[in-house]
Amino acid sequence: MSGERIYLYDSTLRDGAQTRGVDFTAADKAGIARELDKLGIDYIEGGWPGANQTDDAFFADLPRLTRARFSAFGMTRRFGRSAENDPGLAAVLGADVPAACLVGKSWDFQVTVALGVELDENLRMIGDSIGHAARVKSEAMFDAEHFFDGYKANPDYALAAIGAAYAAGARWVVLCDTNGGTLPHEIDEIVRHVTTLIPGDRLGIHCHNDTGNAVANSLAAVRAGVRQVQGTLNGLGERCGNADLVTLLPTLMLKMGYTTGLDEAGLTHLTTVSRAFDERMNRAPNIHAPYVGAAAFAHKGGLHASAVLKDPRAYEHVVPEQVGNRRHVLVSDQSGRANLLVRLAEIGIEVAADDRRLPGLLEQVKANEHVGYAYDGAEASLELLARRALGEVPEYFRLQSFRVIDERRYNARGELVTLSEATIKITVGGVPIMAVAEGNGPVNALDTALRRAIAQTYQGVRDVRLVDYKVRIMSAPDGTGTDAVTRVVIESADTAGHHWSTVGVSANVVNASYEALADGITYRLFQAGVSVPAAADTAAALDMGA
Ligand SMILES: CC(=O)SCCNC(=O)CCNC(=O)[C@H](O)C(C)(C)COP(=O)(O)OP(=O)(O)OC[C@H]1O[C@@H](n2cnc3c(N)ncnc32)[C@H](O)[C@@H]1OP(=O)(O)O
Ligand SMILES: CC(=O)C(=O)O
């Protein structure tokens, strides 16, 4: 374990803004910068002043940071301009931030083709620009674009390019794998050579993920000597993204023993920061993300759960809580008794390992999964299944029938309208209740009618709302592909902020939806400790409501 300090440079607000489908507002940028600062990142690249209105607005009203330093990104002076008289460079260096990072070409092919200037002129562009930046900023950095491709094509020229920046006063010379095509062993070999010319504590690494190696390449560079690592939250960035700082951070700290701007407590915020970032981007978090994904410490295989129960180290490479995550033991058709026991214990059901009801419950789970249920994304339905098997869930209501009608027609103004109407009949303690509702679709109408009927007796369900609805069409369990079944998973929430997911399966999508909706409401009633009213009370409540 080395204990040496690695400086983290976040490029989410600049390279991350180059991600397809991402469009930050200045307010987003300010919020993300605050999160990065709180987390303990050393440098935050705020964007490119002068390049667009969002970045200008952001740099004009920067959030106050407590620990991190802002850096403004830009490029070396244009051909034919002096560094002091280049409007683009002036906008970058004019930003009220302590650091500037200028990108310049280090691959001769790029200089000739993309810039269209003489090779020597590019070296002067780098030296002049970094020299000027070093004079007006407290830190000037050089992003050596295409450094690794450049080194492979013409090592002398690539080294001359970074040498020009270093000689001109760059605090950090950052070696960029711009096209993301370099492999870890190449990074290792090239960086080791570079460190014979420029000390590692003046070198940084910026990797793209085009071969899926951005994190591995960054780690290889660190092992070879660089001390600044660039990356982005959740690996955002141009094309396939950048090195994911959320993966790099715990790897550097927990596995390689480096210190960073985060302490152990800071690292426990990682999962929250990563998920909050996706939330802000309106993206579903990647459940398989290393360290922070919901599946990162989820144990599905029966052999895994059985061993994790004995000692979590059997199938966990770090303690989940170190990165703010938690262990999940999933119950599915891959489970054995151990999964089920752990899951039951998690939801507060203590069952002895030799309980005679356990094998039956496990068989039931497996049989249900065989026909299309999936409990590892619908844990409230699993809990209900288990508690019903143990005789703990009262029958809050019983469905008698429902009918849903869909209509598509032109209204009096000649506009095409679609409308759904649901009628539902249930009984509560034997007392019949009926409700009718309209909705913008059949599930919406049925959901409203069901809650309207149930709320006549159980007032508490009024605050339940449906927050997510997912449908998956699956081929029939016999594999024929005919008579496909539909799996519906819904997420419900209440006003206290509790969320829970339930599942329904049927050949009919509305019926599958009903199952998931009914489980969602039953779960809420059970969690609230509600009991089934006497028939007379239900009848009285209905009379008063009438
Ligand atoms: C590897 C990276 O990810 S670097 C960051 C890339 N990010 C971005 O490009 C996002 C922000 N960029 C922009 O908004 C725009 O490209 C701007 C404002 C910077 C420039 O816009 P424009 O002036 O219209 O130029 P345009 O983008 O079409 O072309 C880039 C120009 O910069 C020149 N250039 C490219 N790299 C450099 C460099 N390191 N130093 C000097 N000039 C450069 C190109 O040769 C080209 O010049 P030309 O117009 O004379 O052909
Ligand atoms: C600077 C940068 O983003 C790159 O070279 O990839």
From TrEMBL:
Its EC number is 2.3.3.21. Keywords: Amino-acid biosynthesis, Branched-chain amino acid biosynthesis, Isoleucine biosynthesis, Transferase. SMART domains: LeuA_dimer. InterPro entries: 2-isopropylmalate_synth_dimer, AIPM/Hcit_synth_CS, Aldolase_TIM, Citramal_synthase, LeuA/HCS_post-cat, LeuA_allosteric_dom_sf, PYR_CT. PROSITE patterns: AIPM_HOMOCIT_SYNTH_1, AIPM_HOMOCIT_SYNTH_2, PYR_CT. Residues 6-268 form the Pyruvate carboxyltransferase domain. Pathway: Amino-acid biosynthesis; L-isoleucine biosynthesis; 2-oxobutanoate from pyruvate: step 1/3. Belongs to the alpha-IPM synthase/homocitrate synthase family. NCBIfam families: citramal_synth. This is Citramalate synthase. It comes from Tistrella arctica. The lineage of its organism: Bacteria, Pseudomonadati, Pseudomonadota, Alphaproteobacteria, Geminicoccales.
